[in-house]
Amino acid sequence: MKSLTLRNVSKTYFDPYAGAHVTAVSDASLAVGQGEFVSIVGPSGCGKTTILNMIAGFIPVSSGEILLNDQPVKGPGPERGVVFQSFALFPWKTVLENVGFGPKMRGLPKAECDKIAREYLALAGLADAAERYPNELSGGMQQRVGVVRALANNPEVLLMDEPFASVDAQTRMTLQEELTRIWQERRPTIIFITHDVSEAVFLADRVIVLSKGRVLKELAVPLPRPRVWDRLIEDSAFKALSGQVLQLVRSA
Questions:
Q1: What's the rounded mean pLDDT across residues 54-62?
Q2: Most buried of 27, 106, 201, 234 (most Cβ within 10 A)?
């Protein structure tokens, strides 16, 4: 079953600095299965974030269509959660209140919101941080809060735009392992944007390589799960697939 489909999607916009229309995405088609984890990679300016923003409903398509469960995407909706590179937490709310914000906006009683929030915080190993504020947490912990805040709203699709780019390398590897563990437990559909080829391969069932707003290549990732860096970092299949993706990105 395909939960998300892009059919011949294009996006053009007027660049006032260039004084001309620019094509960010051109005739892109993509199908993502329910519960699938898909990474999208490509050089800067290839249209990765534009595609994510169109799926999120933040910007309209210029042509083509985006369907979620056969229904056209016309704007933002709670069935699509978004995690940005910046942590984007409410600094005046506790961690518990941040994670419970989505359920609260759906009109659930406070007790139910707190229950859902505590469940997801426990899933991410953050139960002890529930009453703390974002500025009392490390960058890695803040980003974990951002991930489970999006998941607590029970989205069908989780859209992640380079969410680990602003943390150090060790924390990033830990977050990648945490994300794959949480995904395996809850199985949302995830579309993950990244510049990091190793990250894309480590996380995904399938890697999409973009070039100049088009889908250049799709590669399956047949690596077994659960995935941990200690086992994969020297794995020959992992290194070969990462090298293949890197070559494609460089050619793009």
A1: 95
A2: 201
Tokens of 241: 């697939």
Distance between CA atoms of residues 87 and 137, nearest Å: 11
> Which two structure tokens, joined as six digits, stand for 63?
């042509």
Q: Is the preceding peptide bond at 103 cis, omega within 30 degrees of 0?
A: no
Structure tokens of 235? 């794995």
Is residue 155 predicted with pLDDT exceeding 70?
Answer: yes
How would you classify the pairing of strands 2-15 and 20-33? Answer: antiparallel
Per-residue model confidence as pLDDT tens digits over 119-147: 989 988 889 999 999 999 988 889 889 88
pLDDT exceeding 70 applies to what percent of the chain? 99
First to last CA, the chain: 30
Distance CA 53, CA 127 (A): 31
List alpha helices for 42-109, DSSP H: 48-56, 95-99, 101-105
The tokens describing 109, both together, are 């009683």
C-alpha 219/C-alpha 204 separation (Å) is 10
Residue 21's DSSP bridge partners are 14
Nearest CA-CA partner of 60 in 5, 28, 12: 12
* Residue 222 near residue 208, CB atoms below 8 Å: no
Please choose, from the candidates 220, 195, 206, 196, the residue with its C-alpha nearest in 3D space to the C-alpha of residue 49.
195
Please tell me the pTM assigned to this model: 0.90
